[in-house]
Design brief:
The chain is mostly beta strands. 3% of the residues lie in helices and 39% in strands. It contains one helix and 17 strands. Strand 13 and strand 14 form a beta hairpin. The radius of gyration is 21 Å and the shape is globular. The N terminus is likely disordered.
């Protein structure tokens, strides 16, 4: 195995003393909050569905919050970043959970920054990212002439280029930008925010932030307490989201379709029973199909998605997560 060396430099968010917002996926701040959750000093704002807008933790024990993030209050305006990341790969491409950044061989860099406004239930966030990859040469696997591009992945049905051309790569991505309206726990929004489904820490089974963003809308209930009114019995928390968006192919993949884009849609649901503290059960479904009017029947990944003409790809995930803060175990 050839030696790979990676040097990563991460600059923390430049936080305003007056402005505070959601926590970015897989950021150092989120890892810190997860530590507080693990020791019982904080509570997660979500059960299963995570984006920047949903990721607003609640502090339970300020004495354990050494960064004092729980004392920050969100105002009508929020500053995000600037947030800078860089890496150097000496032999081969390597990167994970890094959005639109292609961490090829050589030097790579990513810059994110933005601003958000909140008013009368509306949230407006503009948080783009700018990416660069030196993209130096390295020997790739032969695609055996199965594609128009020599850089395509050698496996026949994956749009996973081994290299993005022969020149340095500059990328602009809208990142965690969106417009959203919320009333109590009901929320509806449109944007490009990175989405993480399920309790996976490093690898989400069906959806993560390990790719560029794409336009998507969603609606549903954020984490909501459920009480049986006739018994006044709290039975637990639920969370439900329906979503759909449009994604596409890279220029290094031969689709076999006339379409340039794909329709992606799904359903996300989770339940945390009150009688089993710390346990969360979640279900996620995703359907991907060619972007065409007759494929809107797949909307929200419902049952019709599993009976089609073979062009669509449907997946489902059932997860269980159990937190024991008394002993720091999850």
């Amino acid at each position: 195995m050839k030696k790979k060396s990676i040097i990563s430099v991460v600059t923390l968010l430049c936080l305003s003393t007056l402005l505070w917002g959601g926590v970015a996926l897989k950021s150092i701040q989120e890892e810190y909050w997860n530590h507080l959750v693990l020791i019982g000093a904080a509570e997660r704002p979500t059960l299963n569905w995570r984006t920047l807008s949903d990721n607003t933790f609640t502090i339970l024990d300020e004495t354990k919050d050494i960064w004092h993030l729980g004392s920050k209050q969100q105002g009508p305006a929020t500053l995000y970043g600037p947030e800078y990341f860089s890496s150097y790969n000496s032999a081969y491409p390597y990167g994970q959970n890094d959005g639109a950044l292609w961490q090829g061989k050589g030097f790579n860099a990513q810059l994110k920054f933005g601003i958000g406004f909140t008013s009368q239930g509306f949230d407006f966030i503009l948080k783009p990212e700018f990416d660069f990859s030196q993209n130096q040469y390295f020997k790739i696997m032969d695609s055996f002439g199965r594609y128009d591009s020599e850089y395509a992945y050698y496996w026949p049905n994956l749009d996973l280029p081994q290299r993005f051309g022969n020149d340095p790569v500059f990328t602009f991505d809208w990142g965690d930008s969106e417009v959203r309206y919320s009333i109590e726990t009901f929320t509806i929004g449109f944007g490009t925010q990175a989405l993480w489904l399920g309790p996976g820490w490093l690898n989400a089974i069906l959806h993560s932030n390990n790719a560029p963003t794409y336009p998507r809308f969603d609606f549903g209930l954020r984490k909501t307490k459920i009480t049986l009114p006739w018994l006044n019995w709290y039975i637990g928390d639920i969370e439900v989201r329906f979503w759909a968006g449009r994604t596409g192919y890279s220029s290094y993949y031969k689709t076999g379709y006339d379409k340039k884009h794909m329709f992606i849609t799904g359903t996300s649901a989770a339940y945390a029973p009150s009688f089993l503290p710390g346990l969360t059960l979640s279900l996620n479904t995703i359907v991907i199909a060619p972007w065409a009017s007759d494929n809107w029947k797949q909307l929200f990944g419902l049952a019709t998605a599993w009976i089609g003409n073979g062009d669509e790809d449907g997946k489902a995930e059932l997860s269980a997560d159990w937190l024991f803060p008394q002993v720091g175990l999850e």
